[in-house]
Amino acid sequence: MQKLNLTITLETYNNDTELSVQENKLLNEARKATYKSYAPYSNFHVGAAILLDDDTIVMANNQENAAFPSGSCAEQSAIFWVGANYPERTIKSIAVIARPGKGDVFRGVSPCGACRQAMLEYEVRQKEPIRFIMLGANNQILVTESIGDLLPIKFTNF
Ligand code: THU
């Protein structure tokens, strides 16, 4: 028996201003998107923003439902909107952030497995990596160079 170690690399930034101008803006759009979320059940407002190759930024948020599984995470709301409206564009980066409760305090959120799988499909389809931006501990910013990094031993059907 042998063991195979899989590793991923995260870029880390100490604050927003260390990001590129575009990605700083993207994270800010994700912050703004939290204020339009519909999350009366969890009170956990998540915002996602997607940067396209023509510099368009698309933002969305979580939309919950009384039948809990019928809700949609911010990442899936955003990426499906892009798929529906900009199928010819390439996605450069996705930023996600959460705002628990009613205040203006933000925290990091790491995407659920279903969102990782949904985002992966767009990355595989466009044949170019999508950068993924989120917050880590102490508001440090974490960036993966591709969605595939978030999903080791991934399932793809093509
Ligand atoms: N949620 C997201 O929108 N994105 C994530 O990455 C994790 C969780 C939502 C789902 C639900 O509306 C709320 O956060 C609490 O789990």
Automatic annotation (TrEMBL):
CDD domains: cytidine_deaminase (cd01283). InterPro entries: APOBEC/CMP_deaminase_Zn-bd, CMP_dCMP_dom, Cyt/Deoxycyt_deaminase, Cytidine_deaminase-like. It is an enzyme of class 3 (hydrolase). The keyword Metal-binding applies. One of its GO terms (molecular function) is cytidine deaminase activity. Residues 21-150 form the CMP/dCMP-type deaminase domain. Keywords: Hydrolase, Metal-binding, Zinc. The keyword Acetylation does not apply. Its EC number is 3.5.4.5. It comes from the Bacteria. It holds the Pfam family dCMP_cyt_deam_1. Belongs to the cytidine and deoxycytidylate deaminase family. This is Cytidine deaminase.
